[in-house]
């Protein structure tokens, strides 16, 4: 079974936002695990399974999928 690849417009639709918002937050989405599929000159596509994981994780934590969850270290001397 071939994996489904999504355009930026399809990602935006799944997240309930406009494509400009996805473009603006692309770095944070990638930091949260959105995987880009290499397509060469055909443009940018994203793996549907990785988007599903982001949505599921955000729903479980009642968080915005654009929020990057960074574990903070305690620097003790």
What does this structure look like?
The protein is mostly helical. It has one domain (5-61). Helix content is 44%, strand content 9%. The chain is built from 4 helices and 3 strands. A 3-stranded antiparallel β-sheet has the order 1-3-2. Strand 2 (36-37) and strand 3 (45-47) form a beta hairpin. The longest helix is centred in the last third of the chain and has 14 residues, at 48-61. The chain is globular and about 35 Å long.
Net shape: globular
Order of helices and strands: EHHHEEH
Query: What oligomeric state do the depicted chains represent?
Result: single chain
User: β content, as a range?
Assistant: 5-15%
**Termini distance?**
53 Å
- Rg calculated over all Cα atoms: 14 Å
Average pLDDT, all residues: 85
| Secondary structure category | mainly alpha
Number of strand segments: 3
Number of domains: 1
The profile of the biggest β sheet is: 3 strands, antiparallel
Helix content: 40-55%
- How are the strands ordered across the major sheet? 1-3-2
- Unreliable stretches, pLDDT < 50, 5 or more residues? none
Features:
77 residues, mainly alpha, 3-stranded antiparallel sheet, 4 helices
Secondary structure topology:
Layout: E1 5-6, H1 8-15, H2 19-24, H3 26-31, E2 36-37, E3 45-47, H4 48-61
Antiparallel strand pairs: 1-3, 2-3
TL;DR of this structure?
By secondary structure, the chain is mainly alpha-helical.
């Amino acid at each position: 079974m071939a994996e489904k690849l999504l355009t930026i417009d399809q990602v935006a639709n799944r997240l309930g936002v406009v494509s400009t918002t996805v473009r603006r937050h692309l770095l944070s989405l990638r930091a949260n695990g959105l995987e880009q599929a290499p397509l060469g000159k055909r443009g940018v596509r994203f793996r549907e399974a990785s988007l599903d994981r982001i949505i599921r994780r955000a729903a479980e934590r009642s968080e915005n999928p654009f929020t990057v969850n960074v574990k903070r270290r305690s620097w003790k001397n």
